[in-house]
Every structure is written in C-alpha cells, then in structure tokens.
C-alpha cells in the first residue's frame, strides 16, 4: 500500500508539469528555477527549486531503498532544509544490490541543494530536461 502512495507523489509532479502550457514552458527564463546535481558514493541527486521557493529532490541509488531507509533520510533532510516530505523522491536504480548507505543519499541531496544555480526546466515528450543557466545539463 505504501509503495502505491509514493508512486502517486511522483505521478503528481509529472502531471503538474504536464499541465503547464508548453508555450509558457518555453518562455520560462533561467531566473524562474534553480537546480543542481550532485553525487556521493552510490547515490546521485537532482535538486530543483521554483520561483516561490518550493523544493523537490530526485535521487537514485545503487542500493535498495526500504521504507525505513526512506524515512531516515527524509527526517535528516527535513531537519536541515525547508522541503516537503512529498518533495523527496528516492529511487533504487535496479543496478546492483549493495548494502544501504543512507549517508550517501543525505550527502548527495545536501550537496545538490547547497549548489543550486539558476536553471531552465522543460517538460516535453514525457521527459524532464534541466539545464543550468550556463548551458550545462
């Protein structure tokens, strides 16, 4: 039952992005969003922030993410940053089955949030594209 609710949260983000008019999406300037990526050990993170200050973090790890691990990481991030729990999406890459490293997830997320720079965010063809204002993807 829990897994279904996490999938629903990710689905809501995709639906919200899909509802944004593509013409409006192409007109968004780099000042509307901030973004950064970071990696630590066996985890990678993409952090996004919109013009209202709402943040979302997408992570991928090379180890399975259990509910207890997700809760542990979320609590640490919630203590450190103003971010809704629904904005923290944790995903196992499906590659490898290594021992859990929650500190890798926390470190990657923290580095990404701390390094955010103006970025351009586009949604098209069921894909999300994020490019820093300097053109790096």
Description:
The chain has 137 residues and is an alpha+beta fold. It has one domain (2-132). Helix 3 packs parallel to helix 4 (102-114). The protein is built from 4 helices and 6 strands. The chain has a 6-stranded mixed sheet with strand order 4-3-2-1-5-6. The longest helix has 18 residues, at 2-19. The chain is globular and about 35 Å long. The model is unreliable at 4-8 and 17-30 (pLDDT under 50). It has helices at 2-19, 22-27, 67-80, 102-114, and strands at 33-40, 43-49, 55-61, 88-92, 117-124, 127-132.
What's the short story on this structure?
37% of the residues lie in helices and 30% in strands. The protein has 137 residues and is an alpha+beta fold.
Topology:
Elements: H1 2-19, H2 22-27, E1 33-40, E2 43-49, E3 55-61, H3 67-80, E4 88-92, H4 102-114, E5 117-124, E6 127-132
Parallel strand pairs: 3-4
Antiparallel strand pairs: 1-2, 1-5, 2-3, 5-6
Helix pairs in contact: 3-4
Task: Tag the structure with descriptive keywords.
137 residues, six-stranded mixed sheet
Number of strands: 6
Q: Can you tell me the overall shape?
A: globular
Q: Given the structure, what is the number of helices?
A: 4
Tell me which oligomeric state these chains represent: single chain
- Could you name the ranges where pLDDT drops below 50 across 5 or more consecutive residues? 4-8, 17-30
SS-based class: alpha+beta
Terminal CA distance: 35 Å
Q: What series of H and E elements makes up the topology?
A: HHEEEHEHEE
Could you describe the largest sheet, including whether it forms a barrel?
6 strands, mixed
Strand order of the largest sheet: 4-3-2-1-5-6
Rg to the nearest angstrom? Answer: 15 Å
Mean pLDDT: 79
Strand content: 25-35%
Q: How many domain regions?
A: 1
Helix content: 25-40%
